[in-house]
Write a structure and sequence with these properties.
- By secondary structure, chain A is an all-beta fold.
- Chain A contains no helices and 11 strands.
- In chain A, the strands form 2 sheets. In chain A, strands 2, 4, 5, 9, 10 and 11 form a 6-stranded mixed β-sheet that branches. In chain A, strands 1-3-8-7-6 form a 5-stranded antiparallel β-sheet, with no helix packed on it.
- In chain A, a hairpin with a 2-residue loop joins strand 6 and strand 7.
- The model of chain A has no long low-confidence stretch (mean pLDDT 93).
- The radius of gyration of chain B is 13 Å and the shape is globular.
- Chain B is 0% helix and 53% strand.
- In chain B, strands 2, 4, 5, 6, 9, 10 and 11 form a 7-stranded mixed β-sheet that branches. In chain B, strands 1-3-8-7 form a 4-stranded antiparallel β-sheet, with no helix packed on it.
- By secondary structure, chain B is mainly beta.
- The chains are: A mainly beta, B mainly beta.
- The interface between A and B is medium-sized, with 22 and 24 residues.
Amino acid sequence: EDQVTQSPEALRLQEGESSSLNCSYTVSGLRGLFWYRQDPGKGPEFLFTLYSAGEEKEKERLKATLTKKESFLHITAPKPEDSATYLCAVRVLTGGGNKLTFGTGTQLKVEL
Amino acid sequence: DVKVTQSSRYLVKRTGEKVFLECVQDMDHENMFWYRQDPGLGLRLIYFSYDVKMKEKGDIPEGYSVSREKKERFSLILESASTNQTSMYLCASRRTSSHGEQYFGPGTRLTVT
């Protein structure tokens, strides 16, 4: 069974305090790993797609990396506006189609 | 920019009522999806559609049905709402099956009393 596990469940940082969020996965036939940001009461907002081990993507203070078993979302010098829940999802091929399997997210709070 | 809209942000219905949740996307995407999101369980796929008039069951289809008569519109139907269907419902679209990323609407918070 495909599984996606995110850690930690919650993270509190001071403004400027860099850290990383983890997404580990056990799937058969990975066809992409996705990171989303979700603000309270809103739908997830797409951030990155990673396809192969060693790949990296960056956007402002965020950098996503991928290995064969996990992905990291590095947050450099975070600001309060980076506070959100970060979701990762994996795309696997299921007979005739494909879908995303989501982790339960890491709730990030950045304080002044 | 991809825009996915959902008919209601908040909805309160009574047990046994038939409930329609509407989703519209404006980017000519082929694929559309319905998820529900519950604390501690994450997003779970209810149904998806590859194209007009096509539908596939997701992981938790029981108690739900869908309709896709036009490419831009995907409806989720709760035939007889129950309290365990109280949840946040999220619609998403994707350009084609060859693309991975899905784009989400703002969500509908449904409460069944």
